[in-house]
Design a protein that fits this description.
Blueprint: H1 6-18, H2 24-41, H3 60-73, E1 75-79, E2 96-100, H4 107-111, H5 132-139, E3 145-149, H6 154-158, E4 164-170, H7 190-198, E5 203-208, E6 224-229, H8 236-242, H9 294-297, H10 299-320
Parallel strand pairs: 2-3, 2-4, 4-5, 5-6
Antiparallel strand pairs: 1-6
Helix pairs in contact: 3-8, 5-8
Amino acid sequence: MIPYNHTEFIEDLTYLIKNNFIQMDRIDDAVGRILLVKFTLGLFENPLADLSLVDELGSQAHRNVAREAVRKSLVLLKNGKHGDDPLLPLPKKVPKILLAGSHADNLGYQCGGWTITWQGFSGNNGTRGTTILNAIMSTVDKHTEVVYLENPDGEYLQSNNFNYAIVVVGEHPYTESAGDSPTLTMADPGPSVINNVCSAVKCVVVIISGRPIVIEPYISSIDALVAAWLPGTEGQGLTDVLFGDYGFSGKLPRTWFKTVDQLPMNVGDSHYDPLLPFGFGLTTQAVVARSISAAIDGRPYTLIVMVLVFISLYFSGIFLT
């Protein structure tokens, strides 16, 4: 685990052993446990990976499982500024929607660290998958206009008639100490995007992060809020739930703080006063179809139901007589 200065590490460790700062028994114990695992796995007999299933990597079956994992792990933190006026699930058929935020069209940001490279990557060229933008485009009605702007200004928002907005912001990829943060804030321009968009349009904010981050200053202006964690390559798992093909069911795996000054904070602490407690998570129900033209779009289905009822009554009459 010393990738960049392993030579110095070996020299320093050797010095410490020779000068009795570290006992050789301690080294033997550590190496022995590592070797035991390797022998148990058969790595000395078969040191190379089995390539017979390499064509299965990234298969559609695997992606389906990953997509299911995404939609089941999403946590709905807020749904409507008032309890009787939920925003989610979103209608698929509206004239015009806005998608904003630095994480809306970035597979690297969706995947986080330990993806392709140690610290992850930015952009859509590192691996195959579905960005949230592409997932939305393939989910909404073909007549719905989707406008994507990473950081729209107030003037643009006021001059366009959006039915609602989806804002996708969060953290940049990291692993280990590269992710250490005394502030736990979202990456810029996330805060300004939330403030600009949610003050002008009904908005759902999706947080892409590996942990809870500061959201308390913005939560009052947000209509709906989703913790998506790191959904990886299958952005369609997010839209499955945002648009009601499946319901939200996920729960917070850890407490969501108000400010970093409260940390560390855990269930049972005398000072436990979270923004959202451990295990919190709102739920929604799946819907068959939603549309602003539901009365029109529903007519074919109504006709089918009526025909089936008449047929049922006809045959019921035959058997009764």
